[in-house]
Amino acid sequence: MNFDNIIDYSKKVNENQVVKNDLLFSSKEFNCFNSDKCDLLYVHQTSKVSMIFGVRDNKLIAPFSAPFSFIRYGSNDLKLRHLDDFYQTLISDVNLEPRIDTVSITLPPYFYDQSMITKNSIALFNAGFEIAYRDINSHIDIRSHCFNTLGSSSKKGYKS
Description:
Layout: H1 6-12, H2 28-33, E1 40-45, E2 49-56, E3 59-62, E4 72-73, H3 80-95, E5 102-105, H4 114-126, H5 152-159
Helix pairs in contact: 3-4
């Protein structure tokens, strides 16, 4: 693994993401700005996908300075096989690196992109990752939700 490869990443990867896919916490700029919160930066990438990790205390962590992180990709046509390849090569690389004991990835809440986050969850499971914590996030889209279907306590909260 080539640690502190953020400069190489900058030369190879187009950071211009499809707007829907672009999450601040996953951007090169955000991670470089917060690089003092980890020992090293590491970018894992395949031809379709990339992700920036921090290395701290023998752990590869994404995010290392935010509540969640996500992959970077330039096409909405990303297939599960692309994600499987991404995480399988990550595990292969980590297994060859004696300085890394653990990999930790925290995905964003599902409302950011339910389909893509679900694909990532499946690919992580396929690669052998285990869920350490499950974020339960309940929300409703008030623009398309029928007010009449809410319970009385919800209606009170909505009116206040």
